Amino acid sequence: MRIENLKCFKAEGLHFSRGINILVGPNNAGKSSLLFPILALQQNLRELNHQDVRMGEARFAANVNFQGDTIRFFQREIESVEFSITAGNVQRQARFKGGSIGNIGQISNKEPNNFIYPFLSRRKTGTIQENVSEDAAYSVHTDFQNLTAKIDKLQNPDLPFYQQYRHLCTEVLGFPVTTVPRGGGKQAVLAIDSQQNIPLITMGEGAINIIGLIVHLVVAEEQLFLIEELENDIHPGALKPLLSYIQEKSKSNQFIITTHSNIVLKQLGGTIDSKILSIEWGQQENRTPACHVRPIGESPQERSRLLENLGYEFSDFDLWQGWLFLEESTIEKFVRDYFIPWYVPDLRGRLRTYSAHSLSEIGPKFNNFNNLFVFLHLEPTYKNRVWVLVDGGVDEKKLLDEMISKYTISGWAKENFMQLDKHNFEEYYPERFREMVDAVNISENNNKRREEKKKLFDCVEKWTKENEETACKEFKVSAKEIIERLSAIQDVLVSK
Questions:
Q1: Is the Cβ–Cβ distance between 115 and 223 less than 8 Å?
Q2: CA-to-CA distance for 442 and 9, rounded, in angstroms?
Q3: Burial code of 335-368, b = ≥16 C-beta within 10 A, e = fewer?
């Protein structure tokens, strides 16, 4: 797309990836303005009018170029569409394959003949209509007025998108949203039982935003999503699986997304063939603000600066040669403060240890870490310098197998995902604490057991600090398995 004299842009050319494109920049820099000439292909926009012509200029123009088959949307092969606005009059012309030029109407906003799915910052609606007519079910709007009809369209178990919709709702929201009869139409709800339900309209904006995007994501093929600030009103825990699904759908759809979120940038910016465009303030011309579009390169330094501008804290990120993810804080503290200095001192200043605090957090935290490396293009430097070490147990084994299956495909070594023989770190305490460990293990009350484990940990750590030489000798025997795993990591990091 090429634009001239659009708000703060004098003349800019943008080349989009066929997959994911991310627009970042400060408030009021013009990120949203770049979406409107594209959206005007399909929608009548109040946002695109003579007031958007750059101050001091008489005319705004935008040229949108296409690659590939456009017959589906235009009924003809189109090379480009050009808009111009002069004194409030909008003109639209197309250049057809073969070179001829002629007027052209808007693309249909009815599925399946629409090209664009808009998801704009002003997408909220005061009411969600209960009409579930064919027109409501297949129309594409810039707000959620026909969301009930969209949901109802996906409720037939015989349709291919039914299971996909319910699965994504449950993964992102925690529950499926369905429809129930109400008056002469239907209402979107969380069904409690045959008589009780919670209407979607009474839930938070985040739930409506999520469903409003999901109903289009599950059906889209070879289409374009224009998304403004996806992160608005959505909890990070719900945002991340939604971003994963966008990554999957980008294999067959195009996305142009504006964001202020380092989570969105980090996860989507690491997708294969994604493109990041930074909107930046330039020199003013006669006191008129000017902005420019700058593609972000692949250097770690450039990408890390961009993340930091969006609030990502790197702290001492660059000081470490390797990382070790551990399941609990107790083992992490002993590994960091005692085992590394005592038994594998070459890992000091090289290996950063992390506690996931629970088994359920190991997977998400490692995935976030992997996304960061992919985004920063650091895989050649740091791939296979990250290890995961979990306790013994069936659930732990299942998680580890899932991680191995997921990450070895992209080049991670199977040996980097490790499991201990024993289920609790307390079982690696020196023999002198055996009776106390057994007493904790037989406790059936989870809260009491947690308290007893904390007391035992404090006791062992106090003894370790006061008797460091003895503790070093005894842990060398009792925690031999853990030390061997650390030694293997040391061999890798020191040899490299």
A1: yes
A2: 70
A3: bbebbbebbbeebeebbbbbbbeebeebbeebbe
Residue 174 pLDDT more than 80?
Answer: yes
Query: Contact, 200 vs 177, CB < 8 A?
Result: yes
Distance CA 128, CA 141 (A): 12
Report if pTM > 0.90: no
Query: In 3D, which of 333, 338, 318, 323 has the Cα closest to residue 489?
Result: 323
How far, in Å, CA of 37 to CA of 81, rounded? 10
Distances (CA, A) of 239 to 209, 214, 231, 243, 402: 11, 12, 7, 6, 22
Domains and CATH numbers, the chain: 2-115+223-302 (3.40.50.300), 121-214 (no CATH), 317-495 (no CATH)
**Tokens of residue 151, six digits:** 């949901």
- Calculate the alpha carbon distances from 252 to 20, 217, 222, 224 in Å: 11, 11, 5, 10
What does DSSP assign to residue 432?
G
Asked, as a colleague might, if the bond just before 300 is cis with ω within 30 of 0, I would say: no
| pLDDT tens digits along 430-484 | 999 999 999 888 877 778 888 899 999 999 999 999 999 999 999 999 999 999 9
Positive/negative CA dihedral, 19, 62, 294, 278: negative
| Size of the chain, expressed as the number of residues it contains | 496
Dist. CA 147–CA 131, nearest whole Å? 10
Q: Which two tokens stand for residue 30?
A: 């013009």
Name, in order, each residue with C-beta under 8 angstroms of 325's C-beta and a sequence gap of 6 or more. Answer: 354, 356, 362, 365, 366, 369, 386, 387, 388, 389
Helices (H) then strands (E): counts for the chain: 18, 19
* Cα–Cα dist 25/261, whole Å: 11
The mean pLDDT value for 390-414 works out to 93
* Of 242, 213, 238, the residue nearest 226 (C-alpha): 213
